[in-house]
Amino acid sequence: MKPGPSLSLEAVVDEPLRFDFEVPFTVEKLAREPLVAGSPAHIEGEVSRVEGGYSLSARLSWEGKLECSRCLAHYGFTHEEEFSLLLYHRRPVAESELSLDRDDLDAYFYEDSVVPVAPIVACAARIAAASALTAGPIGTCRNATAQSRSSIRAGERSSS
User: Fold this and answer.
1) Which of 11, 21, 139, 159 is 20 to 30 A off residue 111, Cα-Cα?
2) pLDDT digit string (tens) for 40-70?
3) Confidence (pTM)
């Protein structure tokens, strides 16, 4: 299996390291229902050195299809976002340090100086798929939403 795109942190010296990748992923790997299809994600940005680690700033875009929870039709969505992460070398964790601090929420911990991009994209895609579900009535396509509104209006007219 061919390894996916990665970032060599050793290449980040004085100037930021710019990157631009297409990252394929499968719906099965994301394990996010009701996502039924997804295009390869495009991620571009830069990594720069900061105190104690690295800072990754990126723009991510991709398209997917969700399954409507009412009519089971597939409907598409497009996702674009800019985000940043702090990259820190993973160190051994003591038993007393098992909780997350607020600063850990926007951090990615790496073990090797060559950081694969796919896990970062997969995490962002899972969050994006969940966000797409909450953009309208949860888990429904426009047709089901329109039908629901029509039914509510019809019910209001018949009760008056």
Assistant:
1) 21
2) 889 999 999 998 899 999 999 988 887 777 7
3) 0.70
SS3 at position 67: strand
The pair of three-digit structure tokens given for residue 13, joined into one six-digit string: 């010296």
Sign of CA dihedral 122, 127, 131, 133: positive
- Asked if 7 contacts 117 with a C-beta cutoff of 8 angstroms, the reply is yes
Specify the higher pLDDT residue, 129 or 31.
129
Closest CA to 57 of 90, 106, 13, 105: 106
Can you list the positions of beta strands (E) in the chain? 6-8, 17-23, 35-38, 41-50, 53-67, 74-89, 107-110, 114-116
Give every CB contact of residue 110 below 8 A, 6+ residues apart in sequence: 9, 87, 88, 89, 90
Residue type for position 139 = G
Distance CA 90, CA 14 (A): 23
Return d(Cα 7, Cα 120) in angstroms, integer: 11
Would you state the structure tokens that stand for residue 52, as one six-digit string? Answer: 């104690």
- How far apart, in whole angstroms, are the C-alpha atoms of residue 80 and residue 97? 35
Assigned token pair, 29 = 């790997």
